[in-house]
Task: structure prediction
Amino acid sequence: MTATEHEGLGSPRWGGFDPARTRGRGWIDLRRTFAVATRLGWQMEANWTDPILFFIYSVAKPLASALILVVMLDVISGGAKPEYRAFVVVGSALWAFVLSGVSGLAWTILDDRERYRMLKYVYVSPSEFLAVLLGRGVARIGVGAVGAAITLVVGVVILGVPFDPARIDWPLLVPVLALGLAAVLAIGLMLASICLQTRQESWSYPEAAAGALFLVSGVVFPLAVLPGPVQALSLVTPMTWWVEGVRRALFPGGITAVGGPGALFTQLTGLAGPTPAQIVGALLVTGAVATLAAVVAFRTSDRRAKDRGLLDQTTGS
Amino acid sequence: MSAGRPAVPGRNAFVYRPTASPQAAAQWTRRQVVMTNLRTVAGRAYPRVTGLFREKSWVFFEILLPFLSTSAFVFVYRALQAPPQYIGFVVLGGAMTAFWLNVIWMMAQQLWWEKSQGNLELYFAAPMNIMAVLFGMAFGGFVMSSTRATAVLIISTAIYGVTFSIDQWALLIGVFFLTLAALYGLGMLLASLFLMWGREAWHLTQLLVEPVYFVSGLNFPIARLGVLGSVAISILPLAVGLDAMRQLAFAGAAYPIGTPSPLIEAAILVVMVVVFLVLSRWALAMLERLARKEGRLSVRWQ
Result:
């Protein structure tokens, strides 16, 4: 038997200290932590009820959001703008995905610290804390993705949104989805960093933050109606490019949120709307900046939480 | 009590008084009961009111961001070139969401939350009425939400140039407070029900946001929903209160017909207040009975 061999969790047979145990197994440990956290997150999300109720729960939120906008549209235009109906249905369906991603990570912190009071134990376990957070967040994103997909189906089948599967722009859709997922997780990580510092009332913070992003991301109205400075802010937000990219890939030729008469983008570039390459490029750049900012915010918050003993501090009101 | 003054029973409800037996000590005067319950209300409201001033990030997340969220719907109407009163409808709806969110997050869920934290058994063991705890939560929540609602209303009105046209101030104020009473009454009822439903309550809370916004006509006149709107008016305080307030706050504006007059809607709210309070009292009594019988008050996270 070599020096590093051991039995179970006991000391190595040769009786000394095995430093490899404190180092862990690198990538393998990370992958395992992420997988376990994802499975745990999914079970926490899904095993509280039967599949039918879970399905209704997953779909009701995004569908109701879409219906609010559809009724608003019909109240004013009387159904005279079918292309705008597609615009708002797709936007609100996609936003369900963003909302679940943004809130998933933050709620993991609040769940484990305030409700289950397990955060300190998870934190001191050998698992990489960031991998745990991301795994739990991905599980919630999965629920949001199901809701978004079904809302789109309802939009097409019941609300009459024109959709042709043969026209899907796959070369645009695939990279945009991948980059968008990373950007959503980055924003979620930023909110998790904030919730690590705040009190129990932070439950509503992710929704509030998502509501603010909703305003500047061209989700349910073209950015041209916003004031110029706000449009500039919109153009540096990754969600703007993600929503635009997915909308363009699924519904080629539809209304663009970024360009058009009066839009800052059109004034700057002279184009009626962004090209697919511009969308991917902009999403890549803004997503990278958001990811870097999220990592910095998380590391800073992590250090401050350890320093001030916030990991096991529960609050209540 | 000042030094030297003899301990007279009844002078101060909480002064120790010698009694013949533990049974006699447990026989409280009416004043002691009332004072204890009033202190319970104040004590339960205290952390919510004080919390306003202790968490600075609250200003940003609870006032600025909800304002931006409301703004998104204002811009939807602007993109559609809607008549100006619709902007006002959205602003009023945005302000009222503060109360609804408070009711479902911090009233309906609260007893279940207290159970998860291990406080609920202490509540039941303490010599006070649990209704007083719920009233305290409601009052504290009302103060918290009022600041957010007022801020959203004032900022949005100023920025988006909303013009109110109010003929019946007294009725509007009355409808507003009746709406709040009915909302918090519903929250008190849901608090007991959610406690019985356990983990499902957490998810149900989330289910009660957007779908309720939709059927309450948060951003559009509820008359547009037809039968669904009528049903909502008869069971949801947010729906009926918001509709009445819109009719009263935009008296001169063209408004889709199909909903009752504000006076009738005020009467509906009165009925709701009574029904929800009675039901919440009944639900609490049933809950307490079940809790003692099945001993589930201290079982957490279920």
